[in-house]
Amino acid sequence: MSAVLSAKGLSKTFGAVVAAADVNLDVPTGQRVSLIGSNGAGKTTFVNMVTGYLKPDAGSITLEGREITGLAPRRITQLGVARSFQIPQLCAELSALDNMLVAAACGDGALSLWRPSHTADKIERAMGLLSRFGLSEHAGRRVAELPGGVRKLLDIAMALTGHPKLLLLDEPTSGVSVDEKFPMMDTIVGALSREAVTVLFVEHDMDIVTRYADRVVAFYSGRIIADDPPDQVLQDEQVQRYVTGTVR
Questions:
Q1: Which residue has the higher pLDDT, 162 or 35?
Q2: CA distances from 79 to 71, 182, 210 (A)
């Protein structure tokens, strides 16, 4: 299986703090990979390097064999990498549908006073995605009126408007109640299954990791300490000691 994302020898320091130390990771097309680790372990630094928000001090990142190391976030997005943040990045005064259309226009570089974003094909694509995420009834509502869980789903739906090859999710169920987290993830995974997209998601909830990840990559002190299927990683002694705190 070919790798949609390949990171080789990534290193990044902030003064005396080592945020990434010789990180190597290949992600095959179609996998759902969870990134785990305590705060400051290096997960977000890795994601920021992949998406262009940080430039590595050393190493390379390729997307389907194309070098993207150090490119601007907008360019990386145009090449097929999308990201959904822990706090949804939405225009509160616009409707859910308008947010979708703005995201689509930004993704393809077509946002302009002189080019319409509300074309029939774009509206059809946006409404199709809203439907998959169970958001059709909210299409005309202002984002400011929407519940937190709906906003999170909308933010992920927006990330898909540009047909990305790789989607990065930052704690998709953060702030969601225990009763809602599995139904929300079922909705997300169901919607993503109809897209040709590989998924990396940062997660602290091990129940979510175990249930939805094909593979788990554990970070500690800027390094990858485990990279295997969920059951194997969560039984790893280093992971239990430094990540889950369950070592006896």
A1: 35
A2: 10, 31, 30
Q: What is the pLDDT confidence band of residue 162, given thresholds at 50, 70 and 90?
A: confident
CA distance 199 to 245: 26
Structure tokens, 169: 């999710």
Helix axes 148-159, 120-132, angle to 10 degrees: 130
Distance CA 32, CA 209 (A): 10
Residue with tokens 């946002």: 111
Q: How does pLDDT run across 12-47, given as a tens digit for each residue? A: 999 999 999 999 999 999 999 999 999 999 999 999
Over residues 97-117, the mean pLDDT reads: 68
Tokens 């999308």 -> residue: 82
* Beta-carbon count within 10 A of 16 CB: 5
Mean pLDDT, the chain, whole residue set = 90
Residue 113: pLDDT over 50: no
Alpha helices by DSSP H, the chain: 43-50, 73-79, 96-107, 120-132, 148-159, 178-192, 206-212, 230-234, 237-239
**In angstroms, rounded to a whole number, what is the distance separating the alpha carbons of residues 128 and 194?**
11
Q: CA distances (Å), 246 to each of 163, 174, 226, 239, in order?
A: 39, 21, 16, 9
> Which run of H or E residues covers position 68?
none
180: left (phi over 0), alpha (psi -120 to 50) or beta: alpha
CB crowding 180-214: b at 16 or more within 10 Å, else e: ebeebbebbeebbeeeebbbbbbbbbbebbeebbe
Q: What is the pTM of this model?
A: 0.89
